[in-house]
Design goal:
The chain is an alpha/beta fold. The protein has 4 domains: 2-113, no CATH class; 122-197 and 486-660, Rossmann fold (3-Layer(aba) Sandwich); 201-310 and 408-480 and 674-704, Dimethylsulfoxide Reductase, domain 2 (3-Layer(aba) Sandwich); 727-841, Beta Barrel (Barwin-like endoglucanases). It contains 25 helices and 37 strands. A 9-stranded mixed β-sheet has the order 1-6-5-27-26-25-7-8-22, covered by helices on one side. It has a 6-stranded mixed β-barrel with strand order 32-36-33-35-34-37. A 5-stranded parallel β-sheet has the order 11-10-9-19-20. Helix 10 (282-295) packs across helix 14 and helix 10 runs parallel beside helix 15. The longest helix has 19 residues, at 138-156. The radius of gyration is 27 Å and the shape is globular.
């Protein structure tokens, strides 16, 4: 049978409430008559507040979207149906740290029973994107997928099967942290395509302090211990609602809130001081603040001397630290313990578990100038000097601090105000606030979203090196959005090493166009997508649809609801909702392990991603590959010596529901100035710059040694496209969605019914646009139609859209069509804000 998918419309809260229970009851009873012929759920009858039978059951659920709040929910179940959600307290925080729930969490019932729920496997019968489907069985779907995968691998090589994910399920078994995907896809030697989002901050910060995780900052409950809280480009009231109350609590306790953001966000409106910096110039502002600190001789010299690379001598010929081996001194060999535990990365691949063992470590000590003028090894020096030069066999060497100061001197406030459009006197005031600690700098995703974003973060963490305000209550610099836990086991039964390295999603279009990667033949012909929606969330939608999907022999998507990505799939697999499966959550802003209970059986013909992987493994000829239960795999992930020492086991997590994974509360990284760099110090001078992701690119190594300001690729006055487009397109994380999740939630659409574009009235009037007009935003890459909303809090020359509306929710086009796929070769990060556009009244063509 051929069926056409059309987005549901016309639902209200009341009509939906009349639908959920009967649909769920029909599914539980096995009735086929109430299943929609279009493959999505239909509305029938359950009144709000109605209960049946002997009462309700309440299960512990966890909201697992990429706001990262991972808030606990009560899942109220009556007669096998989830009838509502409510907040549930955390046991790890006796002060009720995250005893909250937002509108998204309260509206979850719609996500479970909504009309766009995918009910059964489907095969595409029309053109890609047409929404024409044919219902098939699970057996047919798995056979067609695996038969085609076998054919593709036989013709194009093992690597020609690839898989990728988004961030739609922060779980350890069926979610984005699951080792089970590595168990299966490593077995068939598939290629992993890694998303390239929100990584510039990580590169900029971690190359200075070392890797303790992707997004690290003091626990937000520590905000109240700061004298001043700086928030750079983060609208916490909407994007990280779960953290907003910590900011409010801090203000109540006397903390001054300074928001640095081009846009008057809701957080900026609540700030004690709002600084409307020009987009993409955060690095220049931070460097100018450091200029004030240096010229006023207000830097923390003891911290710079004892805890940073400031006194290290740097060779002018190589850009490397002068080492004692250069001076004829043999490196030192010491015995260290290694292999016990290391920090987990966001891909859950970095954690290693085992008994500590002794290994040899070779240390070639950096050379420094001592107070007596002699060059010595760092451990031997009594008083390493911050300033000075040394001639090494005709090679001039200077201290890392002198090199930093030389760069900083280019950013006097009077000059920086022309770059970042912040008055010189304001820059001086900001510098004084940053010196008067304790002070916390919370970085968001704003400055991260340009091709100079690595340097914005590098500059900010370098400012912490100058002030010494890091690693103690109230003092820290970082992102702190969510964290992968430490101490977990990433190698479960059946896992083998990946044969091929991960490939950045930003490299995929070129691979698909050329069948080459890094100069070698590397065709990819099938992509499996889970827990994500790349058509909506990846930059440059038209490029992705035409070059990536258009060159695939088989595009498979597993999801529980129709998305832009599902629309283009060849085979659609119905995945179960979070609350239809149990899950261990090891990634969260709460720094907890959490256990989410299964509240109801999977609706319709949906299956958990874990069960889908088992079917795929059997179809590829490995029926015994995934042969343990969910509980057994989750036990393998958590039951490690490192966590056991903290009393954390899988059974304990299930019993307690949530367990904080640090010995101390609140968690404060970098305590006692202990950093994970080679020297154990803050290395604001990066001796050996590396790229975030190797895609065969070249980069300017000299530029990457120190934080610097340079123009982004496109979003600045005078850029190559400035003659045609003169508005910078920015996005905001809306409170009614998390990326594209909840985009089809009927409850929330009543509050937020259609795509809008916020613009300053002056920009609108210059283009003949009235408030409320439907306008077309366009550039060479694509276009998008939305309703114009005047907002004087939008910086002139900028436009702001709430991100991740689905394609069918626009009158034409979509936002991601407009976004550049150019990227910084070091950060290898999607540059969501680095775009120039123009706008005109829509002519409805």
């Amino acid at each position: 049978m051929t069926e056409a998918y059309r987005a549901a419309s016309g639902l209200t809260r009341r009509s939906f409430l009349k639908s959920t229970g009967a649909v769920a009851a029909a599914a539980a009873a096995g009735s086929a008559g109430l299943l929609a012929t279009s493959g999505v759920a239909q509305a029938v009858a359950y009144e709000a507040g109605q209960t049946e039978g002997d009462g309700e059951q309440i299960f512990c659920g966890v909201c697992r979207g990429n706001c990262s709040g991972t808030c606990k929910l009560n899942l109220h179940v009556v007669d096998g149906k989830i009838v509502k959600t409510s907040k549930r307290s955390f046991n790890s925080f006796p002060d009720g740290r995250v005893d909250r729930i937002c509108l998204r969490g309260l509206s979850q019932v719609y996500n479970v029973y909504g009309p766009n729920r995918i009910q059964y496997p489907m095969r595409r019968v029309g053109e890609r994107g047409s929404g024409e489907w044919e219902r098939i069985t699970w057996e047919e779907a798995i056979k067609e997928i695996t038969d085609e995968w076998k054919r593709i691998q036989a013709e194009y090589g093992e690597q020609a099967i690839a898989y990728t994910r988004g961030s739609g399920n922060l779980g350890a078994i069926s979610g984005v942290a699951s080792p089970m995907y590595n168990v299966f896809f490593n077995k068939i030697n598939a290629s992993m395509i890694k998303i390239a989002r929100d990584q510039a901050n990580t590169r900029g910060i971690n190359r200075v302090v070392g890797n303790l995780g992707d997004w690290v900052l003091n626990d937000p409950s520590d905000f109240k211990n700061a004298k001043t809280l700086f928030v750079w480009g983060a609208n916490i009231t909407d994007a990280q609602i779960h953290d907003w109350h910590f900011v409010a609590d801090a203000q109540d306790a006397g903390t001054k809130l300074v928001v640095i953001d081009p846009i008057m966000t809701q957080l900026a409106a609540r700030a004690d001081m709002w600084v409307p910096v020009k987009p993409a110039t955060d690095a220049a502002l931070a460097l100018s603040m450091m200029h004030v600190m240096v010229t006023e001789d207000a830097v923390n010299k003891p911290f710079l001397r004892d805890s940073t690379c400031a006194p290290f001598l740097v060779r002018s010929d190589t850009g490397k630290f002068l080492r004692m081996s250069d001076l004829g001194v043999e490196p030192e060999v010491i015995e260290v313990e290694a292999g016990a535990v290391s920090a987990a990365s966001s891909e859950n691949k970095g954690a290693q578990v085992g008994k500590a063992k002794t290994v040899q470590k070779i240390i070639d000590h950096p050379a420094v100038l001592d107070a007596d003028g002699a060059v010595k090894s760092l451990p031997e020096a009594v008083d390493p000097q911050l300033n000075g030069t040394y001639d090494f066999n005709g090679v001039s060497c200077r201290t890392a601090y002198d090199l930093l100061v030389e760069d900083i001197m280019e950013y006097a406030p009077e000059k920086a105000q022309d770059i970042c459009d912040v008055p010189a006197e304001t820059i001086v005031e900001l510098a004084h606030l940053a010196l008067d600690g304790p002070c916390t700098h919370r970085l968001g995703w704003g400055s991260n979203s340009y091709t100079n974003g690595v340097h914005a973060a590098h500059a900010n963490i370098t400012m912490a090196a100058l002030t010494g305000q890091i690693g103690y209550p109230g003092a820290g610099t970082g992102v702190g959005d969510f964290k992968a836990c430490w101490g977990i086991n990433a190698v479960v039964k059946g896992m083998t090493a990946a044969k091929y390295p991960m490939i950045s999603a930003l490299a995929l279009p070129e691979i698909m166009r050329t069948d080459k990667w890094k100069g070698e033949d590397y065709p990819i012909r099938s992509l499996y997508v889970y827990a994500g929606n790349p058509v909506s969330n990846q930059v440059n939608t038209n490029e992705y649809i035409n070059d990536v999907i258009g060159n695939m022999d088989l595009y498979v998507v597993a999801d529980y609801t129709f998305t832009d990505t599902v629309k283009y799939a060849d085979i659609v697999l119905p995945a179960s909702h979070w609350f239809e499966q149990q899950e261990l959550v090891p990634i969260s802003a709460t720094q907890c392990f959490l256990h989410s209970e299964k509240a109801i059986d999977p609706l319709y013909e949906s299956k958990s991603d874990f069960e889908i992987l088992k079917l795929l493994a059997a179809g590829m000829g490995y029926p015994d590959l995934i042969d343990l239960t969910e509980d057994e795999y989750m036990s393998q992930v958590v039951d490690t010596p490192a966590l056991g020492a903290l009393g954390i086991t899988y059974d304990a997590i299930k019993e307690n529901e949530d367990m904080y994974w640090y010995a101390e509360k609140p968690w404060i990284p970098w305590k006692n100035a202990e950093f994970r760099t080679e020297s154990g110090r803050m290395e604001f001078y990066v001796e050996n710059p590396t790229v975030q992701f190797d895609v065969g690119q070249e980069f300017d190594e000299d530029r990457e040694h120190l934080p610097r300001y340079f123009n982004p690729t496109e979003a600045y006055e005078g850029s190559p496209t400035w003659d045609k487009y003169k508005l910078i397109l920015l996005s905001e994380r809306p409170r009614f969605r998390v990326h594209s999740m909840w985009s089809d939630n009927g409850y929330l659409r009543e509050l937020d019914p259609e795509p809008t574009i916020k613009m300053n009235p002056a920009d609108a009037e210059a283009r003949g646009i009235a408030d409320g007009d439907y306008v077309e935003v366009y550039n060479d890459r694509g276009h998008c139609v939305a309703r114009a909303v005047f907002n004087e809090g939008i910086r002139p020359g900028c436009m702001v859209y709430p991100k991740s509306w689905q394609q069918h929710q626009h009158k034409a086009g979509c936002w991601s069509e407009l976004l550049t796929s150019e990227y910084d070769p070091v950060g290898v990060n999607e540059s969501y804000f680095d775009n120039l556009v123009e706008v005109r009244v829509w002519n409805e063509e």
